[in-house]
Write a structure and sequence with these properties.
The relative contact order is 0.15. The chain has one domain. The radius of gyration is 16 Å and the shape is elongated. It contains five helices and no strands. The longest helix is centred in the middle third of the chain and has 26 residues, at 25-50. α2 packs antiparallel against α3 and α3 (25-50) runs antiparallel to α5 (64-72). It is mainly α.
């Protein structure tokens, strides 16, 4: 049985891990940096969503509970 932390690893890391064999160090580092950028972007988007007003959410057809569900996700989960 897999541990909880193993199950939480996102597809981003799984994809990165599968591409490692046969890749140059430069490509591995570049891929890792891209993943870090994606995670930071998700963190910022979720933080911005948290600051939206009820009217903003209504305009895009999203409820506060939808936002709460999104905000509960760790930054590495899509």
């Amino acid at each position: 049985m897999k541990s909880a932390s193993t199950r939480l690893i996102s597809a981003d890391i799984k994809g990165f891990h599968e591409k490692l064999p046969g890749q140059t160090l430069e490509r591995r580092v570049r891929a890792f940096v891209e993943i870090l950028h994606l995670w930071r972007q998700r963190f910022r988007y979720r933080r911005e969503l948290a600051s939206w007003t009820e009217r903003d959410l209504h305009d895009i057809g999203v409820s506060r509970s939808d936002i709460a569900h999104e905000l509960e996700k760790p930054f590495w989960r899509a």
